[in-house]
Amino acid sequence: MRILVVEDEPTLQAQLVAAITTAGHTVEAASDGQEAAWLGEVEAFDAVVLDLGLPIIDGLTVLRRWRSLGRTMPVLILTARSSWHEKVTGMDAGADDYLAKPFHMEELLARLRALLRRLTPHSSALWQCGPISLDTRQASAWVDQAPLNLTSHEFKLLQLFMQQPGQVLTRTQLSEHLYPQDSERDSNTIEVFVARLRKKLPPGSIETVRGMGYRLAETPAAA
């Protein structure tokens, strides 16, 4: 999944980026509301972790702007404010959940997983597609109970495929979920990563749709 982290405190931002990346996601980061607003308008994210107390443009204004533009990605707001009316204001502005500072990183990751599950047909952290299983909590996968030894890129690709089984994903979509916004995106490398992932999955699991992209077969072909 592709996550935007908006936090102006450098240490906390670094901790959030590290934890969410370790959980198997691609992470973008912004340090002020102006940058966050722009990223949310021009880039596609699966979820956002948004601090309310931001410089230049505050978090609530950023959130309202996204919602007014039709941006529907789930947003988890972070706030140091403990009063109930601040939480209500955030939810009314379009937030999907909130977490008051200080917080435990495991709780944030759990809340983020819950938000991301709303985007998928999966109701738990354990996803299944034929013989392929994926655990979003442990960032691990296996085939017929045999663990898969995946690189971080391979895991991210498999997670995206399993999020939308049977749907065609373009090389551009796959590239955007693998690389941060400021990285060079080479669609040719996607072919390499897909080829490597294919070798680790049952034959027929990932189908090539000529001229369009790739899709995960909902029932992989038998070997």
TrEMBL record:
Domain OmpR/PhoB-type: from-to ranges: 124-218
4-aspartylphosphate PTM sites in chain numbering: D51
Species assigned in the record: Comamonas nitrativorans
DNA-binding segment(s): 124-218
Gene3D superfamilies found in the cross-reference section: 3.40.50.2300, 6.10.250.690, Winged helix-like DNA-binding domain superfamily/Winged helix DNA-binding domain
Protein name: Response regulator transcription factor
Superkingdom of origin: Bacteria
Keyword list, A-Z: DNA-binding, Phosphoprotein
The organism's taxonomic lineage, starting at the top: Bacteria, Pseudomonadati, Pseudomonadota, Betaproteobacteria, Burkholderiales
